[in-house]
Amino acid sequence: MREFEDPDGVRWRAEVAERGGPNYKGRYHLVMSELDGAEVVSLVDIRWNSERTAARTLDTMSLVELRRRLRSARGRSAS
Q1: Which strands sit side by side in the sheet containing 40-48, from one edge to the other?
Q2: What's the mean pLDDT when you consider all of the chain?
Q3: Which of 40, 50, 65, 74 is at 20 to 30 A from 5, Cα to Cα?
């Protein structure tokens, strides 16, 4: 889990969510949510096979990358 601010100063949490099912491929995906709970964005196109790999990737993402992913996901959900 990572917390960060978007360019407008809104605090967000980036974390990994698990999608159930018998297939392990792509079971974990990225979810970003405002800390006040007002908005939640699932990025199901960003997937990992294991929780360990997902957590490691999330821990190493830069602030720029987190903001870019958030902006992209919010843009797609608005259309």
Answers
A1: 2-5, 11-18, 28-34, 40-48
A2: 90
A3: 50
Sequence-distant (≥ 6) Cβ neighbours of residue 6 within 8 angstroms: 12, 67, 70, 71
Q: Judge contact between 73 and 32, C-beta under 8 A.
A: yes
CB 21 within 8 A of CB 28: no
Q: Could you give phi then psi for residue 20, rounded to 5 degrees?
A: -70, 170
The yes-or-no verdict on residue 77 having pLDDT over 60 is: yes
pLDDT digits (tens, 9 = 90+) for 18-52: 987 777 788 999 999 999 988 999 998 899 999 99
Q: Any idea what DSSP says for residue 24?
A: -
Q: What is the pTM of this model?
A: 0.84
Q: How far is CA 30 from CA 46, 48, in A?
A: 6, 9
